[in-house]
Write a structure and sequence with these properties.
With about 650 residues, this protein is mostly helical. It is built from 36 helices and 2 strands. A two-stranded antiparallel sheet has the order 1-2. Strand 1 and strand 2 form a beta hairpin. It is globular. Pfam families: TPR_11, TPR_12, TPR_16, TPR_19, TPR_4, TPR_6, TPR_8. This is Tetratricopeptide repeat-containing protein.
Length: about 650
């Protein structure tokens, strides 16, 4: 369980990253925020447009001329700025649909109502896409004036114009031309450190590391050339090169080592090198590097967290506990003392052991925490939830009942665990009820949930758990009615593309409940019902694929998953899970090559998808690619060793490799 920190010690990039984060807020979001603040009278006169997130035939098959006509009509009666916003959104949507000339026309028409730097930069970006660089440069000049960049000299304003063009070229992947633009801007004004920094980043993308070093060396000279030696400046330039190389890369470690060799006290280099070794699973080197870092910067909470995680991996739980205890003491949010510090450290130790799939030690650490602070609601609830996850339901109920008892006292004590979401009344109640239902005691679960309702505990978690238990005991109509309070049927989920009615979402959610209860026929019935209402509901198609796969209907599952992918869910989580389900269904149908492709897509979108790693390893094993299979099977095992059959397949791959 390693934490990383983009604001590492002496990370001089934080202000740069903040600057770019603000500049790269999506245009659709900015427009949406602006339009949403309009009064109703204005809204009513503007076209009913929503920002397009994914271009599909459905979203792009619109009557664009009618939208323009409505905007022109609105211009006669409302503030021209609102009309300009409408044209800006129209330009964005046309751009998404790859209608670039029409988008240009929309942005330009919007400019006649109100000139904004956003529209100006969008016009310039389209011209760059069309490789009309001279025109783009002219528009960027206008953008600098509209944005109010008038404090600098005329030469610096011209240099900023070339900077803007270079940035657009980078986004288009035209790196050679971008470098030429940055270098031309540097000829105009070489004293701008950001310009050198951006040039160095482009060289990194081209793997031209020596040129990147030279550019970053200029950054250091411009920022801190008086207090540092030449050797220290070189060290910091190598550090910048390494910081901008994506991990994992052997080159990253090479430049970090050079940096440390030139300046053994450059703590940021140790931080990133430790992270590199950790991600490369070189545990001993990671430990040694982090230890040196802590000699230079002993109060860094992130490195204490990472050290604790590494030491747990090595089986050194005593020293891991010490680092977690130091972390608690250093955390400025924490005000605890004495035994409470030790208790919180044991909880962090338990969480790390849990993440690393060491259940016996994790349970023991939770129990050690409770021995010190027996009234810690959050720790009781966490341990109960973990035991339930392990299938140790009798033990889980004991701890969850104690948490429930503590939280329902007239004046419950403040939870002791950091960020104790487990100690929220709704979560404790739902965990206890869910565990009782799993244990075959649904009526006890209902009693607790009904009491929670009577006490006005009616949040989404309580309602969903109540609906699940009602479904389990056969009260299907009441279960659906209860869910309606979470999904009111008259509203829509506005930011789906296209919007999905809450009635369909309600039915699909009920399908998820039946899936969890392993009542697959009822789950399938609900997904079919949801899709009758909303045929373009990607989440419902994905879940339907899961049900069909469980029922062994692999051809139909493949079709459902592929439909979900064609509809392009807005959720990355849904997409990577869909590729995983597709991969397993294809594998079952002996379509191994296509399955491998699907698993790779799932892993690309989420490298922590253990099921996809397992599926890919299993598929590679059938092709006698034992070494590659072992890599993915081992990763799956580290992420989740409880996959049925995984240990056997991993051993089979090792036997095949050694045969």
């Amino acid at each position: 369980m390693m934490m990383t920190n983009t604001e590492a010690p002496h990370d001089w990039l934080s202000t740069i990253e903040g600057h770019y984060c603000m500049r790269r807020l999506s245009l659709a979001l900015l427009i949406g925020l602006g339009l949403s603040s309009m009064p109703y009278q204005v809204w009513a006169q503007l076209p009913d447009q929503k920002p397009i997130r994914h271009s599909t035939p459905a979203t792009c098959n619109q009557n664009w001329d009618a939208i323009k006509q409505q905007l022109e009509k609105a211009a006669l009666t409302i503030d021209k700025r609102h009309v300009a916003d409408g044209y800006q959104l129209l330009g964005h949507n046309l751009q998404k649909c790859k209608q670039l000339d029409a988008a240009l026309s929309a942005y330009r028409r919007g400019q006649t109502f109100h000139a904004s730097s956003h529209s100006t930069y969008q016009i310039a970006k389209i011209l760059v896409k069309q490789q009309k660089f001279t025109q783009a440069l002219s528009v960027y000049r206008q953008g600098q004036l509209i944005a109010g960049n008038t404090k600098g000299s005329a030469l610096e304003l011209e240099a900023l114009t070339y900077d803007a063009l270079a940035e657009a070229l980078v986004q288009e992947g035209n790196l050679d031309r971008a470098i030429a633009m940055y270098r031309y801007a540097i000829q105009i004004n070489a004293q701008n450190d950001m310009r050198w920094y951006n040039l160095g980043r482009v060289y990194i993308q081209q793997k031209r590391y020596q040129q990147a070093f030279t550019a970053f060396r200029q950054v250091e000279e411009l920022r801190d050339s008086t207090s540092l030696t030449e050797q220290q400046l070189d060290a910091r330039a190598y550090y910048r090169v390494a910081s901008n190389i994506d991990n994992p890369s052997p080159q990253r470690a090479v430049f970090l080592k050079k940096s440390i060799e030139l300046d053994p006290d450059l703590e940021g280099a140790y931080f990133i090198l430790g992270e590199h070794y950790f991600e490369d699973k070189q545990w001993d080197l990671a430990l040694a590097t982090y230890r040196r870092f802590l000699e230079l910067s002993p109060d860094n909470t992130v490195v204490h967290q990472n050290m604790g995680s590494l030491l747990v991996r090595k089986g050194d739980l005593g020293n891991a506990f010490s680092h977690f205890r130091t972390l608690i003491q250093l955390d400025q949010r924490e005000v605890r003392k004495g035994l409470a510090i030790d208790s919180a450290a044991y909880v962090l130790l338990a969480g790390t052991l849990r993440y690393q799939h060491k259940p016996a030690d994790a349970v023991k650490a939770y129990q050690q925490a409770l021995a010190l602070t027996p009234e810690d609601i959050g720790t009781h609830a966490q341990l109960g939830a973990y035991l339930s996850e392990l299938g140790r339901l009798d033990e889980a109920i004991v701890y969850l009942k104690q948490a429930h008892k503590l939280i329902n006292r007239p004046t419950p004590k403040t939870p002791l665990f950091i960020g104790s979401s487990y100690a929220m009344p709704e979560r404790v109640t739902s965990l206890l009820a869910d565990t009782l239902a799993k244990h075959g005691r649904p009526h006890d679960a209902l009693r607790i949930l009904r009491q929670a309702q009577a006490n006005s505990l009616t949040g989404p978690l309580t309602i969903t758990t109540l609906s699940k238990v009602l479904s389990q005991v056969g009260h299907h109509q009441e279960a659906r009615k209860i869910l309606q309070s979470v999904y009111p049927t008259k509203t829509q989920f506005e930011y789906a593309d296209p919007p999905i009615s809450n009635e369909a979402r309600l039915i699909a959610k009920h399908g998820e409940i039946y899936f969890e209860l392993q009542q697959y026929d009822k789950a399938l019935q609900h997904y079919d019902e949801a899709l009758q209402l909303e045929p373009k509901f990607p989440l419902a198609h994905y879940h339907r694929g899961d049900v069909l796969r469980q029922l062994g209907h692999f051809d139909q599952a493949i079709e459902a998953y592929q439909t979900s992918l064609r509809l392009r869910s807005y959720s990355l989580d849904v997409t990577h899970k869909t590729y995983n389900g597709l991969g397993w269904s294809l594998f079952e149908r002996k379509q191994v090559e296509t399955a491998i492709s699907a698993f790779k897509q799932a892993i690309r979108l989420n490298p922590q998808n253990s099921a996809a790693h397992y599926g890919l390893g299993k598929a590679l094993l059938t092709q006698q690619q034992s070494a590659k299979a072992i890599q993915h099977l081992q990763t799956a095992f580290e992420l989740n060793p409880r996959h049925p059959g995984l240990s056997e397949d991993l051993q089979k791959a090792k036997d095949q490799l050694n045969a």
